[in-house]
Structures are given as C-alpha cells and as structure tokens.
Specification:
The protein is mainly α and 270 residues long. The protein has helices at residues 20-35, 39-51, 56-79, 82-85, 89-114, 121-124, 128-131, 133-143, 150-161, 185-235, 237-257. The chain has a single domain (34-167, 184-266), classed as Retinoid X Receptor. Helix 5 packs across helix 11 (237-257). The longest helix has 51 residues, at 185-235. The N and C termini lie far apart (46 Å).
Length: 270
Amino acid sequence: SNTTLSTLSLVSDDISCLRQPDWMLLSNIVHAFDTFSPLFEVQHMIQFLTRTSADYQYILQQSRNIVNVIYQSIQSSISAAADFRIMTTDEQCSLVQRNMHGIWAFYSMVICHQCKMFDSVESKNIMTPLYGSDSVEYVRSITVRLDPDLTLVKLILMVLSFSSNCFAVNEDQNMKRDSLLMGTFRLFGSQNAYVEVMWKYMLYRYGYFESAKRFCELIKIMLDEITLSSTINDNNKVHNDLLNKITEETERSLIIDRCQDIPLWGKTET
C-alpha cells in the first residue's frame, strides 16, 4: 500500500510501528542534543563578530573557538547516551578517535546552518581565515540540501556516532591499540537500535518512498562532508592541530571523570 501513515497521534494505539520504548529512545536522543546545543552561544559569537571591526588574527581565534564549542557540544551529547556509558574508558576513547572528526564536520554544518552563518558575506567571512573561502562556500552548498526535520538530523547523528568508522583518514600510530579493533561488531547492536528507531520515525512521518529519499540524501551529505573534512585534514595544519588537541583533551577527560559531570541523556534530577 502507498497510504501515508498518520502523523497526528502519539497515543499508544497509534497506527505507526513506533511503540512506547521507541518513543522514549527518540525523546531521549532529542533531549540530549537539545540540552547540549551550542546554538545560542554560536549565534551570539556570530552576531558579535559581524558587528565588530576586528583584525585577521582575532577572527581566526574566534573561528577556532567556534570549532571548540561545537565539538564539545556533540561530544557531550554522545557521552550522555546510555550506549556510550556502558563502554569501558578505552572503548570510549577508541570511538572518539574513530568517529568524532567525521561527526563533528556534519554537526558543525548543521549548527552553522541553524545560525544562518552562510546567509551573508560578513558571517561567512568568520570561518574564512581558518578554512578558506572555497571550503566555506562548498559547505554552504551542502547545507541547502540538509533535511529541515531536525529530529531526523539528530537521529542520523546518533546513528553515525556509533558507526564502526566515520572518517576516511586516520594516521594515528596508536590505532593498533584500538580497543574496538577486534570487537567492532559490538557497536552494531547500538547502531542498529538507533537505525531502527530512525526508520520507524521516518515511516511514521513520511511513508516508505519519501523516507528512502530522505535517508539517501542524509547519507550522501555525510559522505560529502567526510570527503571535504578528509581533504582539510590533509591540507590544513591549523585545523588538524586544533581538532587533535581537542580530541586528546576529550580522551583525558574520559579517563579522569568517566562522564560523571554529564547526566544520562542530559536529564538532571528534579
């Protein structure tokens, strides 16, 4: 049947295939991303920089600050997930090494798009000192294809975060000590659970044909972002050094506090 599934009711007898545990997981994922969203902070930085006359070095430093803020946000969102919490510290560090560069690239695009960074020459120029005008313009061209359903975007981010690998370049000499190297299959249980909820959500909202189109476009966007970020990784030492430094700091914090400061799914007790 080509009948589009209803999207008007969330009650227990809804005709969709989403069940109460699915809605709970979906709600938790959305809540985690919303809790740690850097949107307000990045918007404030963009507004300040577009209204201030600043030299090249200051803008470069602020663009690095924006990178750091967005990275910390996505890392906190992933660290709040139950599937991340049950990993050992070594496994958590391995997952960060494998995926965070690629996930960060996708998430940065989403946040910059939400902040309307690509809507004016002045705001686009904020990231130009760090990445160059060609890369900034290419990212802008990708954002116009981004799905307007932010719930769907948050779901694909969680799916990709538990991928076996979400980056195309890795020259880390410590990869042989990757704690997930012989147990990558352990990630599939987590990833499959998120994929299943994502697919059920898309069927609920859009039906089979539209869901397939949206899913393919999201994957294509992610592949385009991985290609671009891999190129930047090879050719932009400032960016590479910055992300390596942030990643190392993230790994140290995981070893020290085991995410103790990050509430599960971003939910604090009341």
